[in-house]
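Researcher: Let's do a round of design. I'm pasting the structure tokens now; please hold your answer until I've finished.
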């Protein structure tokens, strides 16, 4: 439980600087639901606040597209979630860095919002415990990736049975989740595919790092306590 809290807090610390520190409170309370430490009604109210905050950001910029997952790179050491302002967009990594919030460009198609992924703290925990960097030949095997993801979900006691299927430019991640109540609510608000929670966030970030590709989140859905994340590789990256 301490590991989970630590990972979540690392993942949201930059959001405090953006003026939405209530997210921290929300996720701390949500974490404890896995151990059934607090009443569901309290969690429900806090979750409503969290959903409303994220919805306001998305509504303010009229964001309709799925989030774009950027793996860690020299100018974005923790990676990022890029939310384009327009449905027809280009990903220009050269105008993004660690301090970027609003991606401004002379080109309309390159403008958007850049946020730190909520899963970045859990990704750091995985590196700390497993030391995975996906640079050596043995780490480039997909079985190594699956072991990492399974290890993390089991360590945090939040899921199991991770699968990753890659076919052309399409990537599908699936896993069994222990408690899908919160997933259902986030999906109803259409937030998952735009700015995923820390659990799905760490999975998509780790897969993006493994592939060293920029990935668009096309869909996140929950069926029979199993979460499916559909991603697409973006080839045209500047």
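Researcher: That's everything. Go ahead.
Model: Designed sequence:
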């Amino acid at each position: 439980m301490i590991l989970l809290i630590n990972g979540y807090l690392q993942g949201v610390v930059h959001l405090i600087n953006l003026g939405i520190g209530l997210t921290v409170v929300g996720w701390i309370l949500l974490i404890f639901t896995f151990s059934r430490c607090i009443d569901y009604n309290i969690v429900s109210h806090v979750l409503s606040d969290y959903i409303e905050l994220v919805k306001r950001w998305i509504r303010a910029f009229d964001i309709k597209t799925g989030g774009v997952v950027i793996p860690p790179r020299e100018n974005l050491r923790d990676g990022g979630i890029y939310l384009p302002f327009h449905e027809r967009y280009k990903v220009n990594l050269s105008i993004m860095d660690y301090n970027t919030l609003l991606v401004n460009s002379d080109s309309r198609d390159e403008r958007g919002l850049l946020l730190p992924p909520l899963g970045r703290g859990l990704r750091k925990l995985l590196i700390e415990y497993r030391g995975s960097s996906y640079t050596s030949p043995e780490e480039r095997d997909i079985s190594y990736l699956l072991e990492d993801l399974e290890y993390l979900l089991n360590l945090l006691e939040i899921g199991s049975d991770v699968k990753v299927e890659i076919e052309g430019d399409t990537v599908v991640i699936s896993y069994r989740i222990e408690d899908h109540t919160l997933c259902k609510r986030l999906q109803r608000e259409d937030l998952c595919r735009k700015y995923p929670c820390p659990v799905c966030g760490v999975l998509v970030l780790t897969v993006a790092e493994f592939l060293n590709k920029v990935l668009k989140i096309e869909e996140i859905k929950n069926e029979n306590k199993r979460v499916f994340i559909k991603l697409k590789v973006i080839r045209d990256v500047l």
